[in-house]
Each structure stands twice: as C-alpha cells, then as structure tokens.
Amino acid sequence: MTPPSPETTSQKKQSILNILAIFGFLAIVLLVAWLSLLFVQVLPSTFNSLASIAESLYGPNQKPLVITNPTPEIVSGDTIELGFAEQTGKGSYTFSYSCHDGVSLTLIDGDTIQPLRCDMVYSTGEKPDTSLTATSDTAASVLVTYTVTYLRTNDSKPRAEGSGNLVITNPDVATNQPPVSSETVVEVTIGNNETASPTSSVAVAPQRPTKPAQQFQTFSYIPPSQVNGFTDLQVSFIELGVIRNNILSPRLTFTRNSENFFRFEIKNIGTKTSDQWRFTTSLPSGNVTVRDNQFPLKPNERAVITVRFPVTEAGTARAQVSVSVPGDRVSTNDNLLRSVAVQ
C-alpha cells in the first residue's frame, strides 16, 4: 500500500481545520445570542435597582396629592371632612395651615381632640381623610390655605403634596362696618376709566393706623435697626375676593362684572431699616401700575396693600406683584403670581 503523499496529508489537515473553524464560529454565534437574551432579561431589574439606589440617595419624586372632597366654605364652629387620594405603600399624611388672627383649627380623631397651631406640620395618621373643626372669632369671613403631604415610612421628604383653600364665615361678627386694620395699609383703586398710561409712576405713602393703640389686640415686635445689617423685602399673598358695599368679602375666585380685590403684604424680614421702595402690580383688568417712594420699612415691619379692580371676562385671571428696594439681599421672594378662576 502506497503511503499518502505529503500534499494529500496537508489537504486533509486543512479540511479538518476548516471544519473546526466553522464549528467554532457557530459556537461563538450561539454564545453571543444566549448572552443577548440573558442581558435583555436582566436589564429591567438592573434599571430598577439603579432607580432604587437613586431614590434612596436623592429622595422620592414628589407628586401632586389630590384632595378628593374639598370644602370651599364652612361656618365657624362646624366640622369638615377632608379626603385625600389614597397613596401606595405604608406611610402617613400630614396637615398644616396658614396663620390668621382669630382663626384656629382642631383635629378630631375619634375621642381625641387636638388643637392645631398654624404654620406647624401635624401627622394625621395613615387614613386618607381628616376631620377638622374650624373657628374664626374676629372676622366675618376669612380665607385659610392648608397643605397636605404624604410620606412613606422612613421617608425624609414628602412623596406627594397638595393644597387647598377654605373660607371660614362667622355670622355673629358684624359686617356692617368697613374692616379696620392695625397694619400699615395702602388702598389702590384701578378702574376701566383710568386715563393714565398702562405703566405709570405715582407716589403713594403707606397710611398709618388711626385706631387707638390701647384697643389693639395683637402687637408686632419691631427690633432696632442694625447699622451693619441687611434689608430683605418679601411679598406674600393674603387673600382675594369681591367688594360689596365697600366690604371686603374673601372668596376663592374673582367675580365677573363686579369690583374685586387682591390683598398682599410687603414685609421687611431683614435686620436693617429699608430705603424707600417700590412695588408693581399687574392686574386682571389689564393695568400695570408702579408705585414709587414708599415709606421705609423697619425690621419686621410690613405694609398690607389692597388693590381694587373690575373683572369683565370669565376664565382664568392672573394677578402679579413685584417689589424692589436698593440693597435687597434676597431676590427670590420679591415676586408673587396668582392665577385665579373668574366666575
């Protein structure tokens, strides 16, 4: 038997190598396909794990908390039931409300009655509803803003937050006299027949109260101005509503074809008496008005300003206020914008 020639042996080896290369290529393709399927299955859980890590580091994303049965108006001394959209997971709700003279709210939970201080946050438990008693002793009608939040167990920041308005009326408080304020007040009336240019500059000095000091029920501490201190004027919303017979009646909305009002305050929360300051109002009536040369405000002193104007069209109206003063330390609290429904 003739042994195979070297060329034949070489050709066989090459054929075997080619076959092994083909099988190796197919094995690599199958391995890549298997790894791809495994990656697709693991990817969602990986992203979920990353999201959980991010949430633990930066806190949960806050969502709106819907108040399911808002009560727009209540008589002083009555009880209201506030309901909130139920949240997922184990957690609890909190409640807080804005401060007004003579206004107090009380939390009722079975036989437990807990008075609530304004501008403080209280836990109302795990149930998505709260029972409250509201009283107003000094005003015939006052608008109170409240805030509700939801936090899961071990959360440091709310996962959901919502707010609403409540008008508390007291028929026992006389309403036949215009309201008297112990605060510095400026009354500005802007009507459709105003002939001045849309933007005008008028000096209006804040009026000093004329009510005898011994009749005041509340007092504001005015600390001495610090020579090396700072000025910081802050604009804040107080209330809005309709004017009838020269009486301010708080409402949640503006009233069409009636005279409405918008009240806000300018307060010096700094440590130094301010220079003369100015404020600008942009009202639903279309008027933009500038008031210059306002009296300087001492530390902790404020000016309560009531703007009166008509509204002629239904829909949504915007009231905007800005304040400026030389040397103001913080600018983020110099503007106020309120969008209000018109009925």
Main attributes of the structure:
elongated; 5-stranded mixed β-sheet; Immunoglobulin-like; 343 residues; alpha+beta; 41% strand; 1 helix; 6-stranded mixed β-sheet; 2 domains; 20 strands
Number of domains: 2
The third-level CATH topology of the largest domain is Immunoglobulin-like
Most strands sheet: 6 strands, mixed
Show unreliable segments: 46-59, 175-187, 189-220
Main CATH class of the largest domain:
Mainly Beta
Order of helices and strands: HEEEEEEEEEEEEEEEEEEEE
Mean pLDDT: 74
Percent of sequence in beta strands: 35-45%
Total number of β-strand segments?
A: 20
Q: In terms of structural class, how would the helical and strand content be classed?
A: alpha+beta
Rg over CA atoms? 34 Å
Large-scale geometry: elongated
Relevant CATH superfamily of the largest domain: Immunoglobulins
Query: N-to-C terminal Cα separation, in Å?
Result: 113 Å
Number of H- or I-type helical stretches: 1
What would CATH call the architecture of the largest domain?
Sandwich
Percent helix: 10-25%
Write a structural description.
The protein has two domains: 63-169, Immunoglobulin-like, CATH 2.60.40.1860; 184-209 and 220-342, Immunoglobulins (Immunoglobulin-like, Sandwich). The termini are far apart. The protein is 15% helix and 41% strand. Strand 9 (141-152) and strand 10 (160-169) form a beta hairpin. The strands form four sheets. Strands 1, 2, 4, 7, 9 and 10 form a six-stranded mixed beta sheet that branches. It has a five-stranded mixed beta sheet with strand order 11-18-15-13-14, with no helix packed on it. The chain is of the alpha+beta class.
